[in-house]
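Backbone-to-sequence.
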């Protein structure tokens, strides 16, 4: 896996401990790019420390209870439990805004399983992890996904929400790029995003994406039918 100026080939290239950024609804996948607007002091410090080291940050979702408020903000003192699977990324762009914020882009390296959270004196959280080493392989087979069904469902979803897409770029995208890009940009909830992250392989992720999108379409159609009655 080539990410920026670094290459990650084996488990020896992956740190055993990563600093993690718990963010609900954020999805980073291997090979994907996630722009982030950093403004909280603890995460500004985390980015500074990452930039002076290996530039790696782990994106992970907090575990959400059904009665939690729909917000990306969490009481850090409460330290909400973390999901078991996240994805680490390398900072490939870094920009200071002049008003105290930092804009970065994370390029996905590989997913990881969170083994345990470790105690540290930093204001942010760190975890001992086990990487999904299969994600480091350069040649992942995307030939067996149902591209036609994926594009058809995606088109129907856009039409149902009066949205447009760059179909020329979509047509040129390879299957892996297409599946991961649609997964990351999909406006789905935390549970759906976690399911896409934890999919065993690209074929399973594509099938999961189609199933979730079809469920969302069915809900839109039901709501529309209800309004007509």
């Amino acid at each position: 896996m080539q990410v920026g100026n670094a290459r990650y080939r084996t488990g020896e290239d992956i740190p055993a401990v990563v600093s993690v950024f718990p963010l609900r609804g954020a999805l980073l996948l291997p090979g994907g790019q996630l722009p982030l607007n950093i403004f909280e002091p603890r995460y500004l410090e985390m980015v500074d420390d990452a930039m002076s080291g290996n530039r790696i940050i782990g994106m992970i979702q907090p575990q959400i209870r059904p009665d939690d408020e729909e917000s990306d903000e969490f009481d850090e003192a409460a330290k909400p439990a973390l999901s078991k699977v996240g994805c680490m990324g390398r900072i490939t762009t870094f920009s200071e805004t002049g008003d105290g914020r930092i804009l970065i882009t994370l390029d996905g390296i590989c997913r990881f399983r969170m083994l345990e959270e470790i105690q540290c004196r930093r204001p942010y959280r760190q975890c001992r992890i086990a990487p999904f080493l299969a994600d480091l392989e350069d040649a992942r087979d995307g030939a067996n996904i149902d591209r036609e069904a994926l594009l058809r469902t995606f088109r129907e979803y856009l039409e149902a929400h009066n949205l447009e897409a760059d179909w020329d770029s979509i047509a040129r995208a390879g299957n892996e790029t297409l599946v991961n890009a649609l997964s990351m940009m999909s406006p789905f909830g935390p549970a759906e995003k976690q399911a896409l992250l934890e999919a065993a392989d690209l074929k399973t992720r594509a099938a999961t994406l189609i199933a979730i999108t079809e469920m969302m379409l069915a809900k839109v159609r039901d709501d529309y039918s209800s309004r007509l009655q």
